[in-house]
Known about the structure:
This protein has helices spanning 52-68, 75-79, 82-92, 100-111, 125-136, 171-190, 223-232, 239-249, 253-259, 293-300, 315-329, 338-349, 355-362, 367-373, 378-385, 395-399, 404-410; strands at 9-11, 14-17, 23-29, 32-37, 45-49, 139-143, 153-156, 159-162, 164-168, 265-266, 271-277, 285-290. It is an alpha+beta fold. The relative contact order is 0.07.
Amino acid sequence: MPRKRSQANQTANGRTWSPVKGLTIVERGPRQFQAKVRRTGWAQQSRTFDTPNEAEIWGIGVIDGFNKNTFVDTRTAARTTLAAVLDHYLANGIDVLKGKGQAASQIRQLLKSSLAPRYVGDLKAADILKWLDERRTAKVRKKERDGDGRVVKVKVGRREITQYTLEPIGEKTVLNELSRLSAAFEHARVAMNIEGIANPTQDVPKKDRPKRTERSRRLREGEKERLLEACRASRSKPLAAIVELALETAARRSEIVKLLRWEDIDLGRRTATLSGTKSVDGSHRERVIGLSSRAVEILASQGPTSSGRVFNVGVANVTRNFRIACEHAGIADLTLHDQRTEAASTMAQVKGLDIIELADQGGWKDPRTLMKYYVTDGSLRARKLDGLESPGRTEAANDRPRVSRLTRVDSR
Length: 412
């Protein structure tokens, strides 16, 4: 085959020549020069250019990438839409997640976005920033509820129409969707084997990312009594026991409702084993928690269930009825998850658990995460600064060397 354009063969589609070994250029028409690169062990690469010089430069670059083993095939990324990636992720990538219901909802929301019809190889950080601006200005439709937490319905003729209100979308919701979008790009790269795809969410500047509001809400004076009283009057019979158990154990809502089983509870040793608890690295592990005297009383008052769980109720049911109980008690801006903050702070400041014992009890592997839940008391620090005894602690707890255990760990 001729190496020079002047020696090229005349064919029905135009001239054909090969400037270098492995590269063939075909003139397919006016301003249509197709470069084809073939190499054993690699898929054939081809692209059409306006001039033969552009085709030759591209082909030589591909061959150079083959020789140096640095070539990346971006053709799949250039013709695969984000919607296709999200559909594949929804069908094959979320089954292993504990919160797969929430993940599925986030993926369906992303499928409605302006990013979905775009090719994944073309998406850049600027496109993600534009989408973030759209989400921040969006509003979510929520069912309107009365003082008893019931959905408000208006009768129109023979029909009852549910009433909705529009509320601004929260920053945490946008942040969770951004994290899910990032996971979708990783799924495309690893599970779908799409080469040459970058994760544009990682290039979004930190200042432009949605900010997660760190909550430090604790029960104020009189709120615990009003809350438990409202929980006892709730339509959900085990609600009061679940809330008080959360305060006594610092366990998560899902751990109490879904993981706490009678076979894993030892009332004699006052321990409970939680299997498959949440972990940052995605692993399933078990955690043994201690039970206070009040926690033992709560568990002893519960009867057996057909499921083997201590509380035969759903997580969504508990969340909904807790919100209603807070409304009846006149308590604002309180969630069931806030009870972990209350429990962790009480265990450290009043009951005398050191940082390692507290981390074991609550299942916090990272001390930085633990510090989000452990809210220190300014008045308690003031008393310590004056050398006064910490209020609410026993003499033994105050005399315990609380730093010595950490010192031994650091000195290893």
